[in-house]
Amino acid sequence: MKITQVTSKEQWEKVYQLRKEVFVDEQGVHIEDEFDQHDDDPNTIHILLKTDNSPAATGRLRFVNQQGKLERICVHSRFRKHGLGKEIVLALEKIVRDKGLNAVYLHGQTQAEKFYHKLGYETKSESFLEDGIPHYVMMKKWDKGD
Prior knowledge:
Strand 4, helix 3 and strand 5 (103-109) form a beta-alpha-beta unit. It contains 4 helices and 8 strands, in the order βααβββαβαβββ.
């Protein structure tokens, strides 16, 4: 397993394909909703996890109001139930910590709420629809020294 920050067109194409397969093909999100202006923002960080040299998981990170915002976290169906989602979240959190920030939040699908709770996230909102899928705002904070 290897996690890298996306810096090349070839890597971005793998991220694009993963997100298209998971969010558009599996979950029915409209393609124009899945890919947005933040994908092209130079301040947005994308990471890609490969296992056995196959793209397996991805996630994106933006910085909003002095917090990290984790987005577009997904794992290809062939690689689920192997802890790769956790690895993506932890890698994104490490980037936030390395920037000296002490909080992250995300819009987690309601079906993934228990997954995020296990990683220390708290549910901070009522359920709301995003791209036709129920979500919660979820947050995690730590002491700056952690």
